[in-house]
Amino acid sequence: MIRYIAAAGILLAAVRAFPGEVEHRLYLQEGWTARQEKRYSDALDAYAKALRENPASEEAQTGTLFTLVEQGEYRKAVTLSDTLTVRYPGNLWIMKGAAAANFGAGNYRNAAAGYAKILEEGGDDPSMRLKLGLSLYRAGDHDAAALECGKVSDDFPDNLELQRCLGRNLAPWSFYPQAYISYLSYSGARNINSVGTATARMEAYHLSGFGFFGECSYSWYSGESAAGAGGNPASGSSSWENYRQITPGLGAYYSDGRFQVFGHWSAVIEQDGSDSMSNIVSLYGYYRIGRFRLGGGIDAGFRDGYTTIQYTPELGVFFGGHYRLSILPMAQQCLGDQVQTGVRTGTRFSAGLELEAAFRYADITASFYYGDRWQTVEQRGLVTWTGDEAYRWGAELRALFMQGGTASPFISIRADRGAEQYGADRSFYTLGVSAGVRLNIR
After folding, report:
1. Could you tell me if 130 and 166 are in contact, meaning their C-beta atoms sit under 8 angstroms apart?
2. Averaged over 339-361, what is the pLDDT?
3. Ranges of H-type helices in 300-407
């Protein structure tokens, strides 16, 4: 008991001698926790408070430097690192932060010099040697880069840029051919029984962040004669029997990790003798700010006599290192004087949630919506519906496996509850399954 009292007395004396140290340590911990949760603004605030308590704190300066790097504020990080490397010349962590800042800012020669010094003073480290090799490669010194990358090739066998650094697969393009089949079954719907779709798709991705793709789908419908009941509003025919569609599409996107913009066009060509065709255009984008993702999309379908438009803003939040939760409200309108039934009249509102979990061997996405909507365009234009139906709620589960492998299988399962058909109230359900594979050719 006496020892505990003595220890408490020593701690109290230390607090009195250094009144700001307890707060300083608490702010350092607060900054570290905020960084792990990608709350970079909160982390910077915490480190600033720590510096107010202890202006000479190397830990707070180091935390600030790494927060700026992780936030993508590379120019600010370089400016800060220039000061810190002079003030604390032997701090290995500040040297690592300075090298990372220069690499992110595109100062590859400065980054290479920094990583070389880190290896010299801190001993061999495969991750630092990899970054040295990649810095040299991006600076244009390919021979020296290949020498350094060769020393760690066994440590990072799946690193694509390391392979290019070694002179392997120098082509900057990657290609992803895909094929999948989908089947949608109706229960309780009028006239239509099922829809099957086969799709082939080729995607090309460039290291600059730009990607392009082309695709073509063939859909076949089965159902009973709908004579006198409005039939298929997509084509104006009176039967789903032997109805077919061909849907070619083209798209392009740009992504740099924090920012993405995506555009897609497709044409729904009716194969029922009417030679009718609809055009669908989708535009989507988002920007990531710390833990949050702000984005939105617009999908427009054009057909003689009317146009359907849907707006989908997005607010997403990242958490736990592997997860993203997005709120997706939707508004839909149909414009024109030749809307054939009441399903697409007026403006409809609904809202959805989407939860994505990214793991080492699989990306899994679960989504749910509730509210009146007609299914026109989904998944940024990659899925189109042409039936004259309105839905009240729906859910879907998608999974893509082994993204880094040679072949990545994927599957999705969905269920929707219908509320209207051909402009009249009707309760029915749909159940759909899609499965396919994506090849990764680098």
Report:
1. no
2. 78
3. none
